[in-house]
Design a protein that fits this description.
binds zinc ion; 2 domains; seven-stranded mixed beta sheet; alpha+beta; BirA Bifunctional Protein, domain 2; disordered N terminus
């Protein structure tokens, strides 16, 4: 201790230390004694008071505090006054520490209860329901189609949406400059790729990968350079079906398509095949089914014809089998395809298939 300080009356020093404490402690008095029961604090206030009180403790009880200096001074007090001085220091120290401990305990309790209150759950408040999404109408129809074909023993194939000329045209018996390329004009990239214009591409991939026999359907997106109108969209969904095995005939094709349509639209559904032309099948046929709404007597949906045109089909052309590495002398097969959007539009009586792709919740929520 410095020379000058030692000459001061240590008794006055310890009393001054006690007074300085009392002054700073004044704001915490409400956390001691009888007033405590009525005190309540928010969690934030409580935590800030805890920090302030911890600072007071450090300032008055820490190593550099006036009280610590007084305790060191005990040894330097003359022997006859030492006992009385020591007692005084002890008394003041225990008095102060008692107060500060009491305030600390009260504050801890208040903060704890504020914390519990904040975290408690009011079970009487109605819960917040997260909005549940639902499947898109095209997905609903696609899944129904898939379910039916899976039970008929078909695998579901996933195809790529970007294709080479080979898979989109050549392998499907549509060589360069063949007129069948025109109505299937699609979107090309600069390096020889194109967005597939039909899911028939998956036939080739599936046969190349699995060989024959094979039974699969491939639902997916296809693209054409069409101007959007109520029945056209440059992007739409198709499902392609392929069955290749020994001895497959047109009868298998007709039976499969008819059975699918009965399961899709009801047991009384009648299927009709009309001769047609597709480069990748020979012979080829388009198929219609009796209107599910009027049963064939004529209505708005079937445009009073009683029939609904759905898709194309036929026996897989030997050139297609060859392109996919399957021997047409050993195997034969049938293929068919139709639009999922079109089927969806029919089933839900949509006036405009573009509604399916506009992401308008007022429309989509009807399918929940
Ligand atoms: Zn009808």
């Amino acid at each position: 201790m410095a020379e000058g300080q030692s000459q001061e009356d240590p008794k006055l020093q310890v009393e001054a230390a006690g007074k300085a404490f009392e002054q700073e402690f004044e704001r915490f008095v409400r956390f001691t004694g009888d007033a405590v029961a009525e005190t309540s604090l928010s969690l934030r206030e409580g935590e800030s008071e805890q920090r302030a009180l911890a600072e007071v403790r450090t300032r008055h009880f820490g190593k550099k505090s006036a009280l610590a200096a007084c305790k060191k001074a005990i040894g330097r007090v003359s022997p006859d006054e030492r006992a009385a001085f020591g007692q005084l220091v002890q008394q003041i120290e225990s008095n102060l520490s008692q107060k500060i401990e009491q305030a600390e305990q009260t504050l801890n309790r208040l903060v704890e209860s504020a914390r519990t209150q904040r975290e408690s759950i009011d079970v009487t408040i109605p819960g917040r329901h997260p909005r549940r999404g639902h499947l898109h109408p095209i997905t609903l129809v696609r899944e129904r189609i898939e379910d039916i074909f899976v039970t008929l023993g078909y695998a579901i194939e996933d195809g790529r949406e970007i294709e080479t000329d080979f898979y989109n045209f050549d392998a499907l018996n549509i060589p360069q400059s063949h007129p069948a390329r025109a109505p299937q004009d699609t979107f090309y990239t600069t390096d020889g790729f194109a967005l597939r214009s039909q899911t028939s591409t998956v036939q080739i991939h599936a046969m190349q990968r699995r060989g024959a026999p094979v039974r699969m359907i491939a639902p997916g997106r296809v693209f054409r350079r069409d101007t959007p109108d109520p029945t056209h969209n440059p992007m739409f969904f198709q499902v392609e079906g392929l069955c290749v095995d020994r001895g497959i005939s047109m009868a298998h094709l007709k039976g499969t398509v008819a059975e699918f349509l009965r399961r899709m639209f009801g047991p009384n559904t009648v299927t009709r095949f009309r001769p047609s032309y597709f480069p990748f099948t020979e012979p080829s046929a388009e198929f219609d089914f009796s209107c599910f709404k009027c049963g064939g007597s004529g209505c708005r949906i079937c445009k009073n014809s009683g029939w609904i045109e759905l898709g194309g089909s036929g026996m897989v052309h030997p050139n297609v089998l060859l392109a996919a590495g399957v021997d047409p002398n050993e195997f034969s097969g049938f293929a068919f395809g139709f639009g999922i959007d079109r089927m969806c539009g029919l089933m839900y009586s949509l006036d405009d298939i573009r509604l399916l792709f506009e992401n308008d919740l007022r429309f989509l929520e009807q399918f929940e």
